[in-house]
Design goal:
It contains eight helices and seven strands; from the N terminus they run βαβαβαβαβαβαααβ. With about 270 residues, it is α/β, with parallel strands linked by helices. A seven-stranded parallel beta sheet has the order 3-2-1-4-5-6-7, sandwiched between helices. Strand 2, helix 2 and strand 3 form a beta-alpha-beta unit.
Length: about 270
């Protein structure tokens, strides 16, 4: 591989590593020779299984049961990583997602939304990005170098029905990405970069029931999504890995504050 695109030897903290997206990126990073700290707030046996899966690609992986909303525990984690590996090069803020109570059914109105679920979704997606960035960027500031990647959404480009909490949170993540990128570059120089990816539509555990009927056919929502996707298909989760690696590599050394859509053209197409 061209060294410019290499992430070999870099220490990457990946929150939400127990999930489908975080797990896919963690696997890809291990395959590319990075050292991975897999962080998730799941059952220990689940995280242990994920670590064992990743160890098939190398021994430089640590599984940490951690809460991205607990700043004190994140600070301790950062201290432990530096003690073990000496530096932290990459932070991938993958922890996030939606939940049923914050998603309106087709016959529900805004007024039917579960406020408690709204608060959980916005808290996890916004503060679950802000708090790790606060802690780990401090390490990067001392080093004078580092890279943060956040996860936004197509909802940051234009309104998507039925997901008000998730939409508001991921739009905030996009804006925060731009703000933090500017702040760190102005205060600490060009060695620290902050970018985000905006995945298009991928079928996963969280959205399968919304996109696929029990008999395997497409739901009405899926038909609308594909009609606005010029590539006329859903993405494969592994199609995010190369873009994330690129943004973390030296090949992207002049890219900061960017929101990169990985969406089969969904954000570019008017539907006409």
């Amino acid at each position: 591989m061209n060294e410019q695109f290499s992430i070999a030897g870099k220490v990457a903290v990946i929150t939400g590593a127990g999930g489908v997206l975080g797990g896919s990126i963690a696997k890809s990073f291990m395959q590319q020779g990075a050292k991975v700290v897999a962080v998730d707030n799941i059952r220990k046996e689940q995280l242990d299984r994920r670590v064992e899966e990743l160890k098939a690609y190398g021994e430089d992986v640590i599984g940490i049961l951690g809460n991205v909303l607990d700043i004190a525990s994140l600070e301790q984690l950062a201290e432990n990583i530096v003690a073990q590996w000496g530096h932290i090069d990459i932070l991938l803020n993958v922890a996030g997602g939606n939940m049923p109570g914050a998603t309106l059914t087709p016959d529900q109105h805004f007024y039917d939304m579960d406020i408690a679920c709204w608060e959980k979704v916005t808290n996890l997606n916004i503060n679950g990005t802000v708090y790790p960035s606060l802690v780990f960027s401090k390490v990067m500031a001392k080093q004078g170098k580092g890279c943060i990647i956040n996860i936004s959404s197509m909802a940051a480009y234009s309104a998507i029905t039925r997901v008000p909490g998730y939409s508001a949170a991921k739009t905030a993540v996009a804006n925060f990405t731009q703000w933090l990128a500017s702040e760190l570059a102005l205060k600490y120089g060009d060695g620290i970069r902050v970018n985000a990816i905006a995945p298009g539509f991928f079928i996963g555990d969280q959205n399968r029931a919304v996109l696929i009927n029990p008999d395997g056919s497409l739901t009405g929502r899926s038909i609308k999504v594909l009609a606005k996707t010029p590539m006329n298909r859903f993405g494969d989760i592994t199609e995010l890995n190369g873009a994330v690696q690129f943004l973390c590599s030296d090949a992207a050394s002049f890219i900061t504050g960017a929101l990169l859509p990985i969406d089969g053209g969904f954000s570019a197409f008017s539907g006409v």
